[in-house]
Amino acid sequence: MTKTATQLTEVNNILDELQKLIEDTFERLGCSQKELENMVGLNVSINVKNVIVYLGQIEQKATELLNILHYANLKVGHAVEILTKFCQFFLNFIENVIINLVKFIYRYLDTKQ
């Protein structure tokens, strides 16, 4: 296998792991597969061409959950505020992981050219 082919394989493996992370997050947040199917077609699994749609659904669901928590905080009080901060931290963490993985891939590709 050539050096370029090896590098391509490594990058594809990283992309596969990133897509698995995004798909897992999509499922754990309870995002709607039905809505996704309406946007990109029937039973389309995550791929490079539609990953942004998955991320959009994750963002939308996270926003919904934060809005629910905010409303509950108005009704319940301080305990929900702590939970809200944790959820915001978790969402920021996921966002940073995705951003850093994408940056890593681009840097890796730049150094191998």
Segments where pLDDT lies below 50 for 5+ residues?
Answer: none
- Counted up, domains total 1
Radius of gyration: 18 Å
Average pLDDT metric = 81
State the end-to-end distance. Answer: 17 Å
* N-to-C series of helices and strands: HHHH
Summarize the structure.
The chain has 113 residues and is mainly alpha-helical.
How would you describe what is shown here?
This protein is mostly helical and 113 residues long. It has one domain. 83% of the residues lie in helices and 0% in strands. The protein is built from four helices and no strands. The relative contact order is 0.13.
Defining key terms:
0% strand; elongated; single chain; 113 residues; mainly alpha; 4 helices
Topology:
Layout: H1 3-28, H2 33-40, H3 51-76, H4 78-111
